[in-house]
Design brief:
The complex is a heterodimer of chains A (449) and B (462).
Chain A lengths: L2 H18 L4 E17 L2 E19 L2 E7 L4 H16 L24 H5 L2 H18 L3 E20 L4 E19 L2 E11 L7 H13 L10 E7 L1 H11 L5 H5 L20 E4 L20 E6 L2 E2 L6 H7 L7 E2 L8 E2 L4 E3 L15 E9 L10 E12 L2 E14 H6 L1 E4 L4 E3 L2 E3 L2 E9 L2
Helix pairs in contact in A: 1-2, 4-5
Chain B lengths: L10 E17 L2 E19 L2 E7 L4 H12 L14 E2 L17 H18 L4 E19 L3 E20 L2 E11 L5 H4 L2 H17 L1 E2 L3 E7 L6 H7 L5 H5 L20 E4 L20 E6 L2 E2 L6 H6 L8 E2 L8 E2 L3 E4 L6 H8 L2 E12 L5 E13 L2 E7 L2 E5 H6 L1 E4 L4 E7 L6 E7 L2 E9 L10 E3 L1
Classes of the chains: A alpha+beta (449), B alpha+beta (462).
Amino acid sequence: MDKDEIFLGSAENAVNKARQMGAQLAEAYISSTKELNIDVREARVETMKLAEERGLGLRVIREGRTGFSFSTDLSPQGIEEASRQALANCENTAEDAYNRLPSPGRSYADLDIYDPGIRDAAVEQKIEMARQMEESARAYDPRVKIIESSAYQDGESLITVVNSLGLKAVYKGAYCGVYIALAAVQGDDSQSGFDMDFSLKYKSLNPEKVGREAARRAVRMLGALPVTTRQAVVVLEPYVATGFLGVIGPALTAEAVQKGRSLFAGKTGSYVASDKVTVIDDGALAGGIVSAPFDGEGVPTARTVLIEKGLLVQYLHNTYTAAKDGVSSTGNGVRNSFKGTPEVGATNFFIEAGPHPAEELFRDIKNGLYVTEVMGMHTANPISGDFSVGVAGLLIENGEITRPVRGMAMGGNIIEMFANIDMVGNDLKFFGSKGSPTIRIAGMTISGQ
Amino acid sequence: MDAATARGGDFADIFVEEKKSVGISCEAGKIERILSGVDAGAGIRVLSGASTAYAYTNDLSRDGLLEAAGIVSHAAASGKKGVNLEFVDVKPAVNFDFKERPEDVPTEQKVAVVEAADKTARSVDREQIKQVMVGYGDVVQKVTIANSSGDYVEDERIRTRLVVQAVAASGQVIQTGYEAVGSLCGFELFKRYPPEEVAGTAANRALEMLKAKPAPAGRMPVVMASEAGGTMVHEACGHGLEADLVQKNLSVYTGKKGQVVASGEVTVYDDAAIDSRYGSYRFDDEGVAARKVNLIENGVLVDFLYDRLTAVKDGRQSNGHGRRESYQHKPIPRMANTCIAPGKTDPQKIIRETRNGLLVKKMGGGQVNTITGDFVFDVAEGYLIKDGEIGPMVRGATLTGNGPEVLRIIEMVGSDLGFSIGACGKDGQGVPVSDAQPTIAIRELIIGGASQGKPNGKIRRI
């Protein structure tokens, strides 16, 4: 029997068992994953890690109450124990009429998300990738002295969702990627740099480029000093812009809106950003690292435009929040593992690429800062949007990048910042599942000495 | 173990784990979620020179384990070495007694704790407390550890925690109060920390913050009260004392053993063997008995935190700090209960003698660059000190500084000691820790006043 048939069988058993024991609705989610991690230091394999994991998450609903349990034991006894626990847990939770499961019958997109080339490639080749990445970083500049980690990673997963309404869904996906973190050292000055490239296609990985990019990021910051407080045009590197996007992400979920902790509550149909800005979540994005035909509840994934040319269009939903708002789930019932319930979350989440090559964003800036690092992003208040972060980057003078700057602070309000975006680059880059192009903000106060 | 070392290797071990956990969350006065379950699996490791091969599986059958062992055996190229499979029980230095085991406590009783916390927090001020979030969790972790040196350890860790977050609003101002308690113990946690008290603290903190004025910005003396806990020492200094970072040259303390790295007032230790603290254990996750490790004695750097691998590199024995999140992770040097040792000065005297500055009573979240030790922390509860007296509360303050530098400019160390708890996330592996410090006076830190940071009690590292 194939593995997918075995797990489908276990999931059906779990749903049937839970029904027999008294659940009105039941849903079984089984994930089976394999992962390989290779960490190289000084051309030698420091750690090689192989992982195999599978487990069941069981959700039951009885009289509007929901209960959840999980187990790595998929034997009949394990499934029975999980059913018993899920039902016991559901006795103590609050009743809520919107606790529902999705109905079957919707079709799933046929996505190109399983590249057998990842599994077929020899481990030696994968080790070589991490080695090449380390080597190209060192070769970039002799001041690249510390390689914190140079790693190759891949994984594949088989996901099964079955519910008592008749929904049955299975998919197989795989990803691979490389990641490097390093430091450049000159005298007492030490500056860190990193880069990553995660992909669904083994052949598309370019470790040399990733190594060079990480080295470039560290070396260009050597000798950075604070400058005076100033009003400046700010250009955010894709990684930094992605960080800011990450701060507003949770506020675009219907869960945050319904619980009154979203700064976007009540704002659909109004402008929440400059008309240069379009924000999209696309769970079926071609080449997207977390693309899948369905979400953690078996609902088909989709492209959801959240902010279109500055206008707030809609929020992300799972089955529960959609039922509460009387709309359809957007396929954003995300599970981090079989050990958790499907919560509203982003999938491939990004600012859409704009019309300008990145260098055009710098051209007419007399006095600006190219922000390449942010510290303390988490202190941004997700309800008010106020933030105050430490920043480092490169000074822009008369359209040219002149010197590295660090120890500066940048404060403001994230909604105002998004309203002041006046140019968006065409260089959309993903860091895992989130991404952004280079973006330019008309004016910010940068505090320094 | 025999299969894992079939082709050689310097050292091999197996870590078998069964973890049963329960989580209850309450929001908007409703018990939203009750989750429970079991996660069981085994991790097998072979060390060969500086290389680690690691495989894990949750197929605990004989075949499943042999397959994982077979995979890691390929990593060793050094030929068969001596493997001792005559396992001997390792003796612990301490024993802990769990009084009320979580699996013997009915779910209703756990729910009652959560409801009591929710109700109390709301009743503190029915007008201004707008939202209360309560989280309860317990974990019963059983581990079996065996290695190629013949060590054999069976251990059980039970941890219980309660987290309360209250959101208060008045007009346009929204503030958050957070309080968390947790320990290596069972349900008896709530005898030590009644849920009503935890909730009251969180709610009152949020309410007080509503009235607080925005913090001033600039350089000023800072007094950290013992209640603030040791977040700063953990994040800004502790990581630099972990032997892996030291050996990789990623720590400011590399090569500084025997040197003066802190003010003479400062002694720092990590003690996993303290009874009933969140970071405590009898054995670490490599089966090494827990003990107290002095790291900085009167300002002089004396030792680092070691696991087995880093200990071998330095030609010494592990000091019991090899920890892992689960069977899915290889052990690495980690902190447990990290403390700045109490001194002799009366905490009240420290405030009096500081005259003007900022008093920090509760730390929030933060971010640290571990290579340099530069940090930014939120202050979740802070007061101005004026003429040696505690003045008005201020909100939105952030502390910016450098961890190793702070240890050098600690001018007074109080005779008290306060703990805080957290989940430390080094290398993506979360482990429970606690940290502690007495009231301390720091000559000067940069205070940022603009942030309205939501204290999350968790720490993010870059």
